[in-house]
Amino acid sequence: MRKFKLLALALVIGTASLFATNGDDPKETNKKIRTQIVNLLDTPDFVFDKDVTVVLTFTFSSEGEIVILKVDSRDANILNYIRENLNYKKVNNPGERDKLYTMPLKVKAS
After folding, report:
1. Which residue has the higher pLDDT, 44 or 39?
2. Can you give the C-alpha Rg of the chain in angstroms?
3. Residue 102's closest CA among 57, 62, 40, 59?
4. Is the pLDDT of residue 24 over 60?
5. Residue among 72, 68, 58 at smallest CA distance from 106
6. How far apart are CA 51 and CA 86, in angstroms?
7. Which pLDDT value is given to residue 25?
8. In CATH, what number does 24-107 get?
9. Count of beta carbons in the 10 Å neighbourhood of residue 22
10. pLDDT 10s digits, 53-110
11. Sheet holding 52-60: strands in order across?
């Protein structure tokens, strides 16, 4: 009987902690951030010969501005375009401050 009570208590505590967690879905927040970044980049003013996938590493400042830390590309046009259009731009729902975010972006040839 004692083990049953202990098991029931553990079950109640475990279930209560599930309901006490924050309701914000991190995947949904990341989708919102991604959508805003894609809107900021819009369409580049230069032409690509082939599709390129670029991996961005960024964080957010205390003011909610995007701070680009790394752009995984050797193309100078892409590097400059991303830095000019994203670095220190504010977004509506920024992520956590000083947390590193990594996002792949696909730039399609036109």
Report:
1. 39
2. 21
3. 57
4. no
5. 72
6. 20
7. 61
8. 3.30.1150
9. 6
10. 889 999 998 888 999 999 998 888 888 888 888 999 888 877 888 889 999 988 776 6
11. 66-71, 52-60, 101-107
Task: Provide the 10 A C-beta neighbour count for residue 7.
Answer: 10
Residue-by-residue DSSP string for 17-58: HHHHS----HHHHHHHHHHHHHHHH-S-SS--SS-EEEEEEE
Map residue 67 onto helix, strand or coil.
strand
The encoded tokens of residue 103 equal 């996002």
Cβ–Cβ under 8 Å, residues 104 and 41: no
Question: What pLDDT is recorded for position 57?
Answer: 93
Domain ranges of the chain: 24-107
